[in-house]
Write a structure and sequence with these properties.
Blueprint lengths: L1 H14 L1 H4 L8 E5 L6 H17 L3 E5 L6 H8 L7 E6 H9 L11 E17 L7 H13 L5 E4 L5 H12 L5 E4 L3 H9 L5 E5 H9 L3 E6 L14 H4 L7 E9 L4 H14 L3 H8 L4 E2 L5 H22 L5
Parallel strand pairs: 1-2, 1-3, 5-6, 5-7
Antiparallel strand pairs: 3-9, 4-7, 4-8, 4-9, 4-10
Helix pairs in contact: 3-11, 5-13, 7-13
């Protein structure tokens, strides 16, 4: 009788999910961000890290690994132990770099575990308020005219291969012409260059360009997302403004190295969805023009991740953008 009782207790313990699966996380989580402190992605990452620290019961610490256009951060996470304690915050840069570089040092599909998409920041095509172009079609016509005259229009971006660069290059390609790309060290510098008249137009994520638009300094011509931006509902999308215009956005998500434990992925995905039920959290993430785009499940986000790999690869091929 005693032996059966002990065996029964052991069987119950082994069957208990709480005992069969170790507590996770049991240590602080490192959240690797591919940009410097104070950048738009970093600010979003810190909002997410602070809330998830509360929900998970362990600190989530932001680790800024800027450099090499985001390659350093991606390589750091790809090579990390798959224990869920080293994560990556971002997404579009990680996937885009894999097409822009011949050897990025990682494979965005094979070397990563997508967890949850969180917020999207489409780019906004803007010109100065005194520019003669009232819409994207007029700008495209001017691009053709100026290129034919040997005086191509110029555009600024936050760097080679950024969504802003790809969107502008795609606009020129679809218009059957070209414009001169002037890369800057960050989107803020590109916006400043437009303000000072150094370039004719630029793309910048809405959060960076919106203050200038609201101040009346810039005229928005289109957004690059799949939907119109809630902060600028009157501005058409790329697809509405130019036939076959692609969707090119900056989106920020959680991912980790390949082989993450399923319970860690599920815990993080559920925690982000819990956080998104808090109005202050959502307001903080979207106050500068971002849009919440929570993936329904890790599997749905993994499908989106693979599709973005295809889309960005095709866009790099179409525009000829390449970082050697």
């Amino acid at each position: 009788m005693r032996r059966r009782t002990v065996l029964g207790a052991m069987a119950s313990a082994l069957a208990s999910p709480a005992l069969a699966q170790p507590r996770w996380p049991d240590r602080p989580i490192r959240l690797v961000v591919p940009f410097v402190a104070g950048s738009s992605t970093d600010l979003i990452a810190r909002i997410v890290a602070a809330r998830l620290s509360e929900l998970l019961g362990e600190r989530m610490v932001v680790d800024n690994r800027a450099g090499a256009g985001g390659l350093i951060a991606a390589q750091t996470v790809a090579r990390a132990a798959p224990d869920g304690l080293t994560l990556y915050f971002g997404g579009s840069t990680l996937i885009g770099n894999a097409s822009l570089h011949r050897d990025p040092g990682y494979d965005p599909v094979a070397d990563f575990t997508p967890i949850v998409n969180i917020v999207e920041n489409p780019a906004l095509l803007v010109v100065k308020r005194d520019a003669p172009w009232r819409d994207a079609a007029a700008l495209a016509a001017a691009m053709r005219e100026r290129a034919a005259a040997g005086r191509p229009l110029t555009y600024g971006s936050g760097g080679v291969g950024t969504p802003a660069h790809l969107a502008a290059a795609a606009l020129a390609t679809l218009a059957g012409t070209q414009a001169l790309h002037v890369p800057y060290r960050g989107a803020n510098q590109a916006v400043l260059a437009l303000e000072q008249g150094e370039v004719d137009f630029t793309y910048a994520i809405i959060g960076i360009a919106l203050p200038q638009v609201r101040a009346g300094n810039f005229r928005p011509l289109m957004v690059t997302g799949a939907r119109r931006a809630s902060s600028l509902p009157e501005v058409p999308t790329f697809g509405e403004a130019i036939a076959d215009g692609p969707v090119v956005t900056t989106w920020s998500a959680l991912s980790g190295p390949a082989g993450l434990p399923a319970h860690a992925v599920a815990t993080l995905h559920q925690a982000v969805h819990r956080a998104a039920r808090d109005a202050p959290f959502v307001e903080a993430l979207t106050r500068d023009g971002g849009e919440m785009v929570l993936s329904e499940s890790p599997q749905a986000f993994a499908a989106f991740w693979r599709d973005q790999r295809r889309v960005l690869s095709e866009l790099v091929t179409m525009t000829g953008a390449r970082v050697e």
